[in-house]
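Attaching the record inline, Q. Sequence:
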Amino acid sequence: MRVIMVMFDSLNRRFLEPYGCQETITPNFLRLAQKTVRFENSYAGSLPCIPARRELHTGRYNFLHRSWGPMEPFDDSMPGILRGHGIHSHLVSDHGHYWECGGATYHTQYTTWENIRGQEGDPWAPVVGGAEDADPNFAAFTEGLRSGLYRQNLANRTRVTGKDQYPLVKTFDQGLEFLRENEGKDSFFLQIESFSPHEPFMASGEFKAKYPGKTKGKKYEWPDYAPVKESAEEADEIKYSYFADLTMCDEQLGRLLDYMDEKNLWEDTMVIVNTDHGFLLGEHDWWGKNFMPDYEEISHIPLFIWDPRCGVKGEHRMALSQNIDLAPTILQYFGVPIPEDMRGKPLKNTIESDVPVRKYGIFGIHGGPVNITDGRYVYMRAVRTPEERVWEYTLMPAHMKNMFAAEELRETELEPPLAFTKGCPVMKIPVKTGYGRKLAHDV
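Structure, as predicted:
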């Protein structure tokens, strides 16, 4: 038995052909839908990137007690549990957040891992000054909050000289290499995780050419997380830059499907294609995620699963599912006990006959509105006032790229064990700023 999970970051459900989009070119996602069960009511849990990955490991919501941060000493990790039961888990990813302070305990849970360099602001290409001369529109990149990332990204692009050098392509290269190297072997979990189509929307020329006249250069590949201030033409170019990146992702997915067909892996290999969250491309007059309410475009996500035990394909399911369900689904598939602290539910019966696993799901970002959905309606509840206090509960005081500052820790209290901390007390650290706090009340 094997499981292959393909995870794309910021994969928008509404721009995939299987979900009814007619603006994009995604033939391999259509092909995937014919070979899997398509979930109509799959929702994110904890936002953004790394909080979502903690859920994929632990099968438990993250955002109610913790913002962006590492795995905790008391956490159950699905790939780590598999490793402990003699099932090889392998991660191939170009998602640079895994190798930052706030993510550096995730990849070590796998038996083996492969790190592909060069996405976003990955501190990779050592170009002094950040290759500002690489783009005549560089000044446009410095207007937002992430000018350092922009500068480093331009430096990284000096090493991308052809399609085969794109981190997205190299990620699938290594995922397919793992399958070829282990052909005929059993009992493994392979996670092929692509940072694309996360911004910046990097795509080689052949994919931009599929949307003639719509994409012209790097300037409109990286919208800031902010209200839309661009002209209609500029906003359109940003959207089509995403489409080109998405179509490039589609081609890479097709390479995996080709291999699955060639080797007939469908007989005994579960396939999951998923994402962490969506992304606003001008809807509600916003770009991005994190600072605005978690609209449907962010929270309502695509999910495809093939389970060879029941053999159902080409169908859709209406039952409500969430990312916390994936870890218990994978553990159950391998016959491995599911830890009591996992709050997600195995999706086997849902895949087979649309059996519900929950009436409601919650989602959100730490310090922001708490949202609840039944798959039809969403209720959003923000803090009562911007001054209302929020805390981090952790034993691993790290943010995305740095440890907690000393001044953040001076008011730390020791909190008695929480229900899932396995008897360990935790640090209770007051939060004064953060993604969710910025606009949680007044948007």
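The CA atoms of residues 288 and 361 lie 23 Å apart. The longest helix spans residues 232-263.

More tomorrow.
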